[in-house]
Amino acid sequence: MRFPRTLRPYLRCFPESRGGYTAPRPHLPQRTGRYDRQRPYLVRSPARRLPHYCHQSIKMELHTAISLISTPALHTPGPVVWADLGCGKGLFTRALASHLPAGSTVIAVDREPVKFTQPGIQFKQMDFEKDEWKQIPPLNGILMANSLHFVKNKAAFLAKTAAHLHKNHQFLVVEYNTDTPNPWVPYPLSFPNLQKLFRDAGYKKTDLLREHPSIYHRSKMYAALIR
User: What is residue 178's predicted lDDT score, i.e. its pLDDT?
Assistant: First the structure.
């Protein structure tokens, strides 16, 4: 799909799973006044939100998120408790809840308040990296969809989660397959480095579930299951 020319400067910086994103200021054409002929420069316009139709076209749809993290490992015989750390607007929270058995609970965690109406989803407002997990029960699994790249010391963070996980737990990770940082992905984690991170933490198996093209970044998004 081709987007209108005036919207294309936004496409390089829009995270798929985070709705309502304010894009950086795009470059506008050069002015033609006398001062500009002597010293050309680019003019920037104030930051503004994308039009509603552009949000609908760019951001990932729920059915795509459901497909991206789909795996038979989520189909357990009884109810389970998972946490979605850094849930954002809750796209992958809802996708995960659709895979889990009836009676399961997904605890959505984020620093900003999010409202959920879907049964089985509970919201906890906290900083999952810095705060104590006093309100989090023992977990069967953790989902981190485009949130692990905000954690600088990932090894220490995994050590912190160990005390809150059942013995036979799982991790679901959705990330950009790159190791090049930028302002929106400060501590990226490619799939090879994800494998090394969890192997060093004592996990035995890291499976690449599938990949998905990303408008936000030249590299693809990937979903991985760690056990």
Answer: 94
